[in-house]
Design brief:
The chain is α/β, with parallel strands linked by helices and 562 residues long. Helices cover 40% and strands 12% of the residues. The mean pLDDT is 90.
Length: 562
C-alpha cells in the first residue's frame, strides 16, 4: 500500500509529522508541502486521520488489478473487514460484485487465517521456543525489521495470512493464477505471491470503472462460494486455542497493542534478555483498528458489523491437517537508513539552544518528540529550523533588538545602544574625556500592569521616554533596554554631573506619573550611575557597573539614585 500527499490540499501544518512514529514525513527547507520518506515509512496509516485537510491517502495498484479483472482469470482475496466499508451491502452482494467485476475466484481470507493458525499452534505446543513475536501484522513486522533489528530474530517464522492464502490458491489453480488482495493492512514492498494490493477505496473505484454496484445485486451467492467459515482460527490468523487457553497450558501469552510499545518490547528482549513467551503483538487493535479502516470512535461499530456477518464455526477442519503449502517465512533486516552527521546535528542543537533550566526544550511543536530527533531530521534536509518554536522565538527577540528604534517609545534600540557605547569608549580613549551611563528601572510597573492593564502601562513607558528626551542633551543617547528598563549615555560627563542628571530624571518621572493621574509614589524610578574614565583601571563592563548601582538604589528603598 502506498501513501501519497495531495499538494493541492497540504498546508504543511505538521499534524502528520507529529503522528508519524518513524519520522517518515519530511518538510525540507523551502518546501511548501510535506513529503513521504519511503525508507522510513512502514505504512502504519497514523498520518491519514491526523491530517485535518484530508491531504494524505493510501492507495494500491488499481490499474494492475483492473487489468486482472478485465482478463477474467484472476483471484481476489477479500479481507473480512470489507463488509464494513461497503455496508449496507451484504457479504453476498459484495462477493457477487467481485465476480461481476471480472474476477474468476473470490476468497474471503478465512483460508489464510486457518493455514497460519495451524502453524502457530505447532509453535505454541513446542516447549523449546523462548520469546516469539507474532508476525501476522505487516505494519508490526515492518516496524521491527526497519527500526528495531534486534527483534527480528524473535519474529515467528510464519508468513502473513494473505500470502499463505495466495500460495494455497495457486497450489489449487496453478502457479500462473494472478492474485489480488484487498484489505486495510497489506504487506509492504514487493510480495511475489500478490500481483496487486488494493485498499477498499481502490476496490470501490474498480467497481465504478467496471460499472458494478454491489447494493443492486442479489443478496444470495450467484456462485457456490469457497469456504467462509472458520474452524480453528480467529481473525488475523491466531489459533482459537491460544486465545482461549492463554497461559493455562504452561506457555505465557503476552498481548501487546500499539507501536508505542515497541521500544519497551525491544528493551525487554534485546537488552534485558527477558523471556516474554509468545508475544501477541499488533500495531493497532486488529485490522479494524487500523487508521485506514475508519475513525477511532467507530471501532466498536466496525466490530459489531463484522460479528453480525460472521458465520458459525465449522465443526470440521476447513483446510487439510498437512496442506502441501509452505506457510513459513524468513524476515530480513531492513535497509540501513541514512544517518546524519553528528557535527551537523550538534550545530542545529546549538542553534536551538536550551530552556531556562539548561535542558533541551523537547516541546514537540516541531512535530518531533525530542530536539535531538528534530536535529537529526534537519541535518538530513528533512526538516528546517522554521519548524522550531524556541528558535523562532529567539529570532524574534533578536530581530526586535536589532531594530534601530524601539517601536513603543521611539528611543534607540538595544543594538543602537551597543554600537554607540563601543563608539563612545573608543572616542573617550582618544580624547581622555570620561562619560557616564544611567541605568533606569521603573519601580512598580508590573503592579500597575496587573491593576490597570498593559495598555495603561505602555502609556507610562511612552511618558517616561518623553521625560528622558526632554532632560538629556542632543549629544546624549537614550535607549530602551527592555521591559521597563532604560539606559542613558551621557557624553563628556563625570560621575558628579551624571548624579545630577539622574536625580533630575528621577524627579521628572515621578511628576509625570501625577500628570497621568496616578497617586503619589505609584510611578517612580530607581537609577544606577556608572562612569567610564579612560585613566582609571577597568572595573568590568560599564552596563554591568550601572546595573549593580541600580541594585543598590533599589535596595535603598527605591525612587533613589546610587
Amino acid at each position: 500500500m502506498h501513501l501519497a500527499i495531495d499538494p493541492s490540499r497540504c498546508v504543511a501544518c505538521l499534524a502528520c509529522v507529529r503522528a508519524c512514529p518513524t519520522d517518515a514525513i519530511a518538510l525540507p527547507p523551502e518546501a511548501r508541502v510535506v513529503e513521504i520518506v519511503e525508507e522510513n515509512c512502514i505504512s502504519c496509516g497514523e498520518c491519514i486521520p491526523s491530517c485535518p485537510h484530508q491531504a494524505i491517502s493510501a492507495s494500491g495498484a488499481v490499474d494492475r488489478a483492473l487489468a486482472i479483472a478485465e482478463g477474467g482469470n484472476g483471484a481476489l482475496i477479500l479481507a473480512p473487514e470489507a463488509v464494513v466499508h461497503f455496508h449496507p451491502a451484504s457479504p453476498e452482494q459484495l462477493v457477487n460484485a467481485c465476480y461481476e467485476a471480472g474476477f474468476r475466484l473470490v476468497s474471503r481470507g478465512v483460508i489464510g487465517d486457518e493455514l497460519v493458525a495451524q502453524q502457530y499452534l505447532k509453535l505454541w505446543e513446542d516447549p523449546d521456543w523462548g520469546t516469539l513475536i507474532r508476525s501476522t501484522d505487516p505494519v508490526a513486522v515492518a516496524a521491527i525489521t526497519a527500526h528495531y533489528p534486534e527483534l527480528v530474530p524473535y519474529l515467528a517464522p510464519v508468513t502473513y495470512p494473505c500470502v499463505a492464502e495466495a500460495r494455497f490458491l495457486r497450489r489449487l489453480h496453478g502457479d500462473s493464477l494472478p492474485v489480488v488482495y484487498a484489505g486495510v493492512s497489506a504487506p509492504g514492498g514487493t510480495v511475489p505471491e500478490l500481483d496487486a494490493l488494493l485498499s477498499f477505496a481502490d476496490l470501490e473505484q474498480l467497481f465504478a470503472l467496471r460499472e458494478v454496484r454491489p447494493e443492486t445485486l442479489p443478496r444470495t451467492h450467484s456462485r457456490v462460494p469457497p469456504e467462509t467459515r472458520r474452524h480453528m482460527s480467529v481473525a488475523g490468523g491466531l489459533p482459537l486455542e491460544m486465545v482461549v487457553s492463554g497461559s493455562s497450558r504452561g506457555r505465557r501469552l503476552l498481548a501487546v497493542r500499539g507501536l508505542e510499545n515497541v521500544p519497551a518490547l525491544s528493551r525487554a528482549v534485546g537488552h534485558d534478555r527477558i523471556d516474554l513467551g509468545f508475544v501477541d503483538f499488533l500495531s493497532h487493535a486488529g485490522a479494524l483498528g487500523h487508521p485506514a479502516a475508519g475513525p477511532k470512535d467507530e471501532l466498536f461499530r466496525r466490530r459489531m458489523l463484522v460479528q453480525q456477518y460472521e458465520l458459525p464455526r465449522s465443526r470440521q477442519p476447513v483446510v487439510p491437517d498437512h496442506p502441501d503449502v509452505q506457510v513459513g517465512a524468513a524476515f530480513a533486516f531492513g535497509h540501513r537508513r541514512e544517518q546524519a552527521e553528528p557535527a551537523a546535528v550538534l550545530t542545529i542543537l546549538e542553534a536551538i539552544g536550551t530552556g531556562p533550566n539548561g535542558k533541551a526544550w523537547d516541546c514537540r511543536a516541531c512535530g518531533y518528540p525530542t530536539c535531538h530527533r528534530f536535529a537529526q531530521a534537519a541535518a538530513l534536509g528533512r526538516a528546517s529550523l522554521r519548524q522550531c518554536v524556541p528558535w523562532l522565538s529567539k529570532r524574534a527577540e533578536d530581530a526586535s533588538r536589532d531594530a534601530s528604534t524601539d517601536a513603543l517609545t521611539g528611543l534607540a534600540s538595544y543594538r543602537s545602544l551597543q554600537q554607540r557605547l563601543s563608539h563612545e569608549m573608543e572616542r573617550s580613549k582618544r580624547s581622555g574625556d570620561s562619560f557616564a551611563v544611567l541605568f533606569i528601572d521603573l519601580d512598580r510597573l508590573k503592579e500597575l500592569n496587573d491593576r490597570y492593564g498593559h495598555e495603561r502601562g505602555n502609556t507610562v513607558l511612552r511618558s517616561v521616554a518623553d521625560e528622558i528626551r526632554k532632560t538629556i542633551r542632543a549629544t546624549d543617547l537614550a535607549a530602551r533596554y527592555g521591559g521597563d528598563e532604560f539606559v542613558v549615555l551621557l557624553t563628556r560627563t563625570d560621575r558628579a554631573g551624571a548624579l545630577r542628571v539622574a536625580d533630575a530624571l528621577r524627579d521628572r518621572i515621578e511628576q509625570s506619573g501625577r500628570r497621568l493621574g496616578f497617586l503619589a509614589g505609584q510611578i517612580t524610578a530607581s537609577v544606577g550611575v556608572a562612569e567610564y574614565d579612560p585613566s582609571q583601571p577597568n572595573e568590568g563592563p560599564l552596563l554591568e557597573q550601572a546595573d549593580r548601582a541600580l541594585y543598590l538604589a533599589k535596595s535603598a528603598g527605591r525612587n533613589t539614585v546610587a
